[in-house]
Write a structure and sequence with these properties.
It comes from Rhizobium terricola. This is CTP synthetase. Keywords: Membrane, Transmembrane, Transmembrane helix. With 68 residues, the chain is mostly helical. The chain is built from 2 helices and no strands. It is rod-shaped. Helix 1 runs antiparallel to helix 2. The protein has one domain. The relative contact order is 0.19. Helix content is 84%, strand content 0%.
């Protein structure tokens, strides 16, 4: 489950960090610390999301494994 969550974190953090940076730039906040802070906030928010998604996907794969 940890490996699945790690892969999901890479994807989720990229999406949330990029979205946060886009939001900050659209508000014309052009300072480097504002852009970096938005990306860091997106990465922090992505941690629990990736963990929950990984747990749900792992449990779904584990419970629905039927022999062929």
């Amino acid at each position: 489950m940890l490996r699945l969550s790690a892969v999901l974190y890479i994807l989720v953090a990229t999406v949330l960090g990029g979205g946060a940076v886009t939001a900050v730039l659209s508000m014309r906040m052009m300072e480097a610390w504002q852009i970096a802070g938005a990306f860091a906030a997106g990465c922090v928010v992505a941690l629990p999301i990736a963990a929950v998604l990984g747990r749900k996907m792992y449990n779904a794969m584990k419970s629905s494994s039927t022999p062929a």
